[in-house]
Structures are given as structure tokens and as C-alpha cells.
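User: Please fill in residues for this 294-position structure.
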């Protein structure tokens, strides 16, 4: 009896010869979950450190998710032209570059430089998500592909929780507790002291991102030397962009779903970002506590 004719629940979700590429690719789900949830508290942190407005600080999320928006389609084209493995390697390279750019951004004390670092980082994450999800689906029988992807995606929250823990214990708790009002007072009375405090706080933020960049670089090396199996879809690398976009645009359910997804993600990110600052103001919780209590 052919493998695909067997009932899905009697099949192995991951066949033995696919275990290594499956485990390796699944580890990436935790990596981008980590990046998402270490970033949310940074909006409030940058606002306090650099004394910028709520609108300006929210540009952290604009840059972060802007990378996804701009790079998703080019990533899909790149993967179609080359391979899933090439997409994963390029994604890890951009992810690492973005993380390591936090070091010169901190030295410069320039908010725009941090935004550029976030944008490059998430261009890499866009490559990773665009590559990893369909690649996991392809690692075995189509009958078990959904279960395989759900299992891999279960590691995304593990990365998210780790990102929250790192943000709370290794960034927020180590930042200078001086309030924004006190910092603004120093701006006129002792700008040199304020500059020293800002330098200290930015160095705290840089540390975890620099370490993350090194970890991601090591992962990139592993993916470069790993011999990942190719699937049948990678044998046909013709793009056919025109017919593909034409077919999608004519599908009204697809178009309305994309619009709904845009609004959903916007509301979700807004809540994740500003609920910490909301907890700080009316209830006077410190951000290092609000990050988890909420």
C-alpha cells in the first residue's frame, strides 16, 4: 500500500530520513518568535531613553513589520528561483546583520540607525518564514503535512516566551529607573549626565541583540554546510509572476482575506506594544513588571 493511501493518523508525522532537516528547520520557528517578543518592550524603552514621542517610538514596530511587508514577495520569488535552503541561508544572514547593526547604532546613539537595524533584521525574518513554513510541509507525506507544520509552529511560542524573559530580566530590569520627567529635567540642567545614562541604557539593549546575532550566524553556518533534501517543486524554477498575480487578484476571497489580515495584525501589534505603557500610566506599574503582569 502506498504511503499516501494510509490513514494520516497511522502515519509517522516525520519520516526517519527527514528528522534532521525537520529539527533544524523547526529551530528557526523559535528564533523568529524570540525576535518578535523581545522587540515589543523596546518601544517604551527607546521612548524613555531617547526622550522621543509615542509616535516616534512606535516607528520601531513600523520598521520591524515593514521588513515583512517589503520583503515577503521578493523572498518568495528568490526561493522559487533558487531553493528553500538558499532562502533560509539568506534569511539568517540578514537576521544576523540586523542584530549586529545594533552595536554601531548604540555607539552613534541614533534612533534612525536602530530602525534600519530592525528593518534589515526583519527582512531576514521574512525570508525565514517564507521559506520554513512550506519547507516543513514538503518534508514528508501530504497527508501529514498540516500536523507536521502545527508541531513545528508549537516552538514559536517557546521563542516568544524566551524573548519576553530576556527583555524583562536582561534589559528592562537593568535600565536606569529614572523616569522620563526626571530625564527631561536633566536635559536642561545636566545634559552630560543624561548622555551618560542614555549611553548606559543603550549598551544594555545592545547586549542581547549582539549575542543573538552571533547565535544566528552560527545557525547560518550550519545551514550552509547541511545537506537538506530538495522537493519536487524546487525542480521547476520558472517564475510565471504575471499569471500568478492575475489569478490571485481575481480571487475576491483572497484579496478580502489579505485586507482583513492587515487590519488584524495592525490591531494586534498596537495592543502588544502599548499595553505596557498603558499599565505604567493609570496603574503606575514599572515597565519591567508590566511586561509580564499584563
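Assistant: Residues filled in for all 294 positions:
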Amino acid at each position: 500500500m502506498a504511503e499516501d493511501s494510509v490513514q494520516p493518523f497511522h502515519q509517522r508525522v516525520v519520516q526517519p530520513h527527514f528528522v534532521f532537516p525537520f529539527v533544524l528547520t523547526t529551530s528557526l520557528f523559535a528564533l523568529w518568535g524570540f525576535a518578535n517578543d523581545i522587540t515589543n518592550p523596546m518601544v517604551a524603552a527607546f521612548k524613555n531613553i531617547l526622550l522621543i514621542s509615542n509616535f516616534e517610538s512606535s516607528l520601531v514596530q513600523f520598521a520591524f513589520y515593514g521588513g515583512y511587508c517589503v520583503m515577503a514577495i521578493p523572498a518568495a520569488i528568490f526561493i522559487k528561483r533558487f531553493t528553500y535552503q538558499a532562502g533560509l541561508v539568506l534569511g539568517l544572514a540578514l537576521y544576523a546583520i540586523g542584530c549586529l547593526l545594533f552595536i554601531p547604532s548604540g555607539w552613534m546613539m541614533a534612533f534612525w540607525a536602530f530602525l534600519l537595524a530592525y528593518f534589515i533584521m526583519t527582512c531576514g525574518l521574512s525570508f525565514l518564514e517564507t521559506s520554513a513554513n512550506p519547507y516543513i510541509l514538503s518534508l514528508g507525506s501530504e497527508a501529514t503535512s498540516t500536523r507536521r507544520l502545527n508541531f513545528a509552529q508549537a516552538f514559536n511560542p517557546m521563542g516568544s516566551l524566551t524573548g519576553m524573559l530576556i527583555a524583562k530580566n536582561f534589559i528592562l530590569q537593568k535600565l536606569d529607573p529614572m523616569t522620563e520627567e526626571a530625564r527631561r529635567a536633566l536635559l536642561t540642567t545636566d545634559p552630560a549626565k543624561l548622555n551618560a545614562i542614555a549611553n548606559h541604557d543603550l549598551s544594555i539593549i545592545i547586549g542581547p541583540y549582539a549575542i543573538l546575532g552571533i547565535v544566528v550566524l552560527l545557525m547560518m553556518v550550519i545551514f550552509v554546510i547541511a545537506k537538506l533534501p530538495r522537493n519536487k517543486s524546487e525542480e521547476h524554477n520558472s517564475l510565471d509572476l504575471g499569471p500568478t498575480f492575475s489569478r490571485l487578484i481575481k480571487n475576491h476571497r483572497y484579496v478580502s482575506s489579505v485586507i482583513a489580515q492587515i487590519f488584524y495584525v495592525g490591531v494586534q501589534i498596537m495592543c502588544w506594544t502599548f499595553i505596557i505603557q498603558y499599565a505604567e500610566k493609570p496603574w503606575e506599574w514599572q515597565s519591567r513588571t508590566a511586561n509580564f503582569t499584563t
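For context: The CA atoms of residues 231 and 290 lie 46 Å apart.
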